[in-house]
Every structure is written in structure tokens, then in C-alpha cells.
Amino acid sequence: MTALATDTRGTTPPASPARPSLGARITHALGGPLVRVLLVLVGLFWLVPTIGLLISSLRSPDDMSASGWWTVFTKPSQLTFGSYQKLLENGDITHSLLNTVLITVPATVLVVVIGSLAGYAFAWMEFPGRDWWFLGVVSLLVVPVQVALIPIAELFGKIGLFGTIFGVVLFHTGFGLPFAVFLLRNFFAEIPRELLEAARLDGAGELRLFARVVMPLGGPAIASLGIFQFLWVWNDMLVALVFTKSGTQPITVALQTQVRQFGNNIDVLAPGAFISMVIPLAVFFAFQRQFVSGVMAGAVK
């Protein structure tokens, strides 16, 4: 009995569980149901202007002048597609929407393609002054758009590009490339060197290596860049206001012109503004998985 008592007293007591760190406790608290409900409410509150614009675009001018958009919840008979029909009959708005597509798509594609090629070259190709050239490209990020508006407008006027869609595309491409090269070069530089050397040993040239190895691996970063560039160009108004004329104006300038000329035609402005807003949202949600993957990959690296 004495020996048994001695063995029992000599046994080390079990260690108490470690107390969670402050960060772990905060993370656990933020994952609670109350916080989730709060985030849902904040998201719904953030969507109120969008919902109001959508409902306003589905109401007649008389209803909009008589009461607020929230009255539709008690009188759903106010909803109508007459404003959208009138919008489609407005040649200025429909033509400007086409101009917006003709400006945004080429400006996005050119920035993605040229930025990808330049980013790969700065990351993995050896040529004289590579680091200095890259430093010069990155330094262009600090040049504000407003500083270049007048000089480039004068240059475009001399060479016949002022007021054309191609001139606006060229401007957006030039100012989008520094960020594109900076982003993609840093992403491509994280690709394992062994993978590229193995492809070269198999006989792959630089273009084939770029198309078959680098582009698939850089898909998330390229998708993120494409989304950013698309949103910037689609929502731009300053550059379009300076460099376009009446026949080449995008939707943002056309809506502003409608407000200036016909201040009370809300039945055209509301559906036009909603269409101008919903298309970039559709593009974002269509590529949101690649966008999140690109952001997370950059965070991990």
C-alpha cells in the first residue's frame, strides 16, 4: 500500500490545456452567428442605393415624381418595363453603350496581353538594362492621369486621333500598362525556376514556354488584372469627357449629357445608369473565383 501510494504521489499531474491566444479568441468571436447577421445587415444596407436605382428604373415618371421608390413594396403595380423600352428607343444611349464596349474590351485585352508579355520578359528573360527598364516602368505609376490630359490631347489632335475611339483606347492602354507590368512581373517571378528549366530542356522556346507554362500558372493574376482594368475603363468619365466627341462618347458621358440637357428625363437616366452599373458587376461575379485566387496567391507569396 505504501509503495502504491508513493507511485501515485510521484505521478506528474496532467497539464492544463493551453489558453488560446488573443488572435485565436478574436477570430473565434468574429465567426459567431451574431457577427454574421451583422455583416449581412451591413451588406444589405450597402445595396440600398443599387436596389433603389433598380426599382426606380422600373417605375413610370409620374410615379417617381409622386412618391419615393420604397412605395413599390406596398404598390407593386407600379413596376413596368416602359422605361427600358424608351431607353432602347433612345439612339444616343444605345450608341454610347456600344461605344463603351468598343473602348473597354480592346483596352482591357491590350493591357492584359502586352502586360503579360512584358511581365514575363522582366521576370525571366535576360537583356541589357532589364532592372533599369523595369524601374522606369514602375516609376510611371506615380504619374497622375490629370497631368497628361492636355499634352496628349494636343498630340492626338496633331496626328488625327483626338475624338476617336482608338485614341481613347490608346490612352487607357498606356496608363494601364505600368500597373499591369508591375503586378504580373512580381507574380511571374514566383514561378519555380526548375519548372521553366525543365520546359526548356524539352525544347520549348520562349513563346511556347510563355503560352504553355507561364500563362496557365498566372491565370489568377491575369484574371484579377483584367477585372481591374475592365472596371476602370468602363466607369471612366474624365478621359472620355476630354477625348471623345458626340459620336464616340461612352455611356458615362452620354448620361451626363442627358442630365445637362434634359434634367427631368429620369425615365431614361435611371435604366441607363442601372445598365451601366450592372454590366461591370456581372463581369466581376463571372470571374470572382479567379479574382479571389489571384488575391490569395499574392497574399500567400
Provide a descriptive summary of the structure in words.
- The chain is mainly α and 301 residues long.
- Helix content is 75%, strand content 0%.
- The chain contains 17 helices and no strands.
- α7 (91-124) packs antiparallel against α13 and α11 runs antiparallel to α12.
- The longest helix is centred in the middle third of the chain and has 34 residues, at 91-124.
- It is globular and about 70 Å long.
- The N and C termini lie far apart (62 Å).
How much of the sequence lies in strands comes to under 5%
> What average pLDDT do the residues reach?
80
Rg on CA atoms, Å: 28 Å
Query: Class by helix and strand content?
Result: mainly alpha
- Low-pLDDT sequence parts: 1-8, 295-301
Distance between the termini: 62 Å
How would a crystallographer describe the biggest sheet? none
Compute the number of strand runs: 0
Helix content: over 70%
State the shape.
Answer: globular
Number of helices: 17
SSE pattern, N- to C-terminal: HHHHHHHHHHHHHHHHH
